[in-house]
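Q: Convert this sequence to structure tokens.
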Amino acid sequence: MRAAVVTEFGGPEAVEIVEVAVPEPGARQVRIKVAAAAVNPVDAGTRAGVFGGAGERLGLGWDVAGVVEAAGGASGWNAGDEVVALAYGTAKSLGTHAEYVVVDADAVAAAPRTVDAAHAATLPLNALTAAQALDRLALEPGQSLLVTGAAGAVGGYVVQLAARLGVSVTALAREDDEELVRSLGADRFVSGAVAPGSVDAVLDAAILGADALEWVRDGGAFLGVIPGAHPASVRGVRTGAVEVAADGARLARLVELVDEGALTTRVAGTYALDEAVKAHARLSEGGLRGRLVLTP
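A:
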């Protein structure tokens, strides 16, 4: 089968399409025939060597939408099931940017019925990150949350999910994104400086770091999206970063929200698997609203 991998670090041109053996599922695993797989910033990080692994073959891709093709014992899934899943890990030899991928059965959820595979593939990594971040922040209805990078993939899901919880959301994004983030549920929009101490918590999807920390009230909470890269606590503010975990049950609940029309998936563009280099080049240009998706 074909798969997108990195064997030498670099820019978009470092992505290679290689022929590899079709992976076999073990007990409590499933093999998915990939219909679509999103391209995320973490893939660019892998490609650039941010996570190490020099001299190894590193697979790309965390998100997958597709069809179960084979299942190991006691997996709970059957051939032909349409599914979505998160294939966690920066150091895996094969990822979801391939014709087939093997994942643990408990990372899998039934695919949404109301969107196509490309849109479904934008859900696992980014929506799970958003949901697990809100779990960490533990905000109550009526409390205030500032989301930086609110028009991005993670930020957009945070805005939608927080609004459903009754949290008052302020969205920080570019001026031309105001209509978008308000449509996702933001109560307030800002594109410049926010007064320090103005919110109970910040979800820093734009990776502003210490600047965003200054906007949290004393004793509030700050959560980043890069583990280990968050600023130190000041003024009693609880700081940390979300590290996504595969969770098929939680993913299933997010799928339900998509099918209810309560969670919006966004595709910025699609590329064939053989065009993975082009997709990485477009990702590097920035300015995307939604995710790029590869289709084998």
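Helices lie at 41-48, 117-120, 124-137, 153-164, 178-183, 210-213, 248-259, 276-285.
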